[in-house]
Amino acid sequence: MDCVMAPILPQVMERAGMMAARVVCQHIRPCRVLVACGPGNNGGDGYVLARYLAERGWPVSVAVLYPPGDGTLAETMAQRWQGPVVAFTAEEAGRVDLVIDAVFGAGMNRPLPKVVEQFFAAARQIVAIDVPSGLDGATGACKGRVAPCLMTVALIRKRPGHLLEPGRSLCGDVVCVDLAIPPAVMEGLADSALWENGPALWTLPVQQVEDHKYRRGVVSLCGGTAMHGAALFAFEAARHVGAGLVRLTVPDESALLYRLASPAAIVDTLPLEEALKDERRHVWVCGPGLGREEVERTLPLLQRANRKIVADAGALTWAAGHPELLQGVSVITPHMGEFSRLFGPCEENRLEAVQRASNQLGAVVVLKGADTLIAAPDGRVAVNVHATPALAVAGAGDVLSGLVGAFLAAGLPAWEAAAAAVWIHGEAGRRAAVKKGGWIVPEDLFGELGVARSAASYAEEEKLYWQK
Question: What pTM does this model have?
Answer without folding.
Answer: 0.86
